[in-house]
Amino acid sequence: MDTRAFYRRQDVGTPRGGGAHRSPRTALVPRFLRCRAAVLPSMLTFLVIVASGGLLLMIEKGMLNSMETSLPRRSAARPEHGPAGRRRPVAADMDTQILQELRNRTIHTMCSQKDLVDNIWSLSDLQRKIVLQHVLVNDEHRFLYCYVPKVACSNWKRLMKMLSGALKFNDFRSKLDHHHDLVFLSSLKPDEIRYRLKHYFKFMFVRDPMERLLSAYRNKFGEIESYQKSYGVKIIKRYRKVDSAKGDDVTFTEFIKYLVDENEERMNEHWMPIYTLCQPCAVTYDFIGSYEHLERDSEYVLQHIGAPSHIRFPERQTWYKPVTKEILHYYLCTVPQKLLKELFLKYILDFSLFAYALPNTTTEDCRH
Ligand SMILES: *[C@@H]1O[C@H](CO)[C@@H](O)[C@H](O)[C@H]1NC(C)=O
Ligand SMILES: *[C@@H]1O[C@H](CO)[C@@H](O)[C@H](O)[C@H]1NC(C)=O
């Protein structure tokens, strides 16, 4: 099956107004969302779900395997500048190439919807401020990196400091100052921003949206006292209707309720949707790596920007607590279904643009 054919059909099946419920693609919308069209905030959201449903179905049915031959083979990871041949080339396997291609095309298709702004100057002031504050600049190697908290951003910030000489090579143990010695796009003048957006290599890293939220929850509410005292207290007072609280025992469901009630542009960056942080329609990223292939994708970027070969992405720390599929499933199943639906809708662009499957959380699935 040819991906192009898939997307062409996608376009045809995409109702431009009114006919959503008759779309043949409706069959691909996850069952629990299909009967709830009334709750969808806009047609756009509906289209996004339709498209991601299509992707998911293809992934689940293994249709991707048969597409290999029709995909253009990418010359995997050849450094364009810098010391050619010194870094070992990274081989992207076929699945990764296909995922990259799907993400690329989905973003392309989705971002051409007229509701989604295609350049940063047309964003609202607040939206533009958020993205400019999350894009880091390296002029020597001519690249921009949009950092997403809970997606290995500390390690990438360390790498950026190493590249600019502010941090000793491979000193990954030192405590990271998240602002010092880093250049944010927001600190530059409009002309300088325009130039860099146009000419630099731009990349970001994404992660399964629910894994990212669970990771933020376990880290901030489980370990960080300042978060318990600020967000924790606020959440418990709001949802338990009490006057005072210590804030150290926020449940996952309370956290999810809070997320559903918050405006995504006013959220803390650790749980703000990736879409809002990096605006992948307004900034056309050249490469979107994923947490699931962190080391390899990072190596690809380092190679592409011509980083010296002794700068390497660090191995995972020994204290690192992974969020496994089983743990995520366990936590999600503690949350009422209705609330989960609202949560998925809130993060629907992160699921669909970056081709992540909606988790299985029907009563049936949760029995296991
Ligand atoms: C998408 O594909 C185009 C054309 O092959 C390429 O130039 C671009 O870098 C890709 N973008 C991403 C995010 O992979
Ligand atoms: C979700 O559940 C369905 C039916 O139980 C199953 O076929 C599918 O593979 C599951 N998907 C994921 C992503 O776990």
Automatic annotation (TrEMBL):
Bias type Basic and acidic residues, positions: 1-11
GO biological process: one example: carbohydrate biosynthetic process
GO terms for MF: sulfotransferase activity
Domain of life from the UniProt record: Eukaryota
Top-level EC class as recorded in UniProt: transferase
Location of the region described as Disordered in the Swiss-Prot/TrEMBL record: 1-24
Keywords noted in UniProt: Carbohydrate metabolism, Glycoprotein, Golgi apparatus, Membrane, Signal-anchor, Transferase, Transmembrane, Transmembrane helix
Species assigned in the record: Salarias fasciatus (Jewelled blenny)
A GO-annotated cellular component: Golgi membrane
Record's protein name: Carbohydrate sulfotransferase
Enzyme Commission number: 2.8.2.-
Membrane topology field: Single-pass type II membrane protein
Family annotation (PANTHER family): CARBOHYDRATE SULFOTRANSFERASE (PTHR12137), CARBOHYDRATE SULFOTRANSFERASE 14 (PTHR12137:SF33)
Family per similarity comment: Belongs to the sulfotransferase 2 family.
Transmembrane domains' residue ranges: 38-59
UniProt-annotated location(s): Golgi apparatus membrane
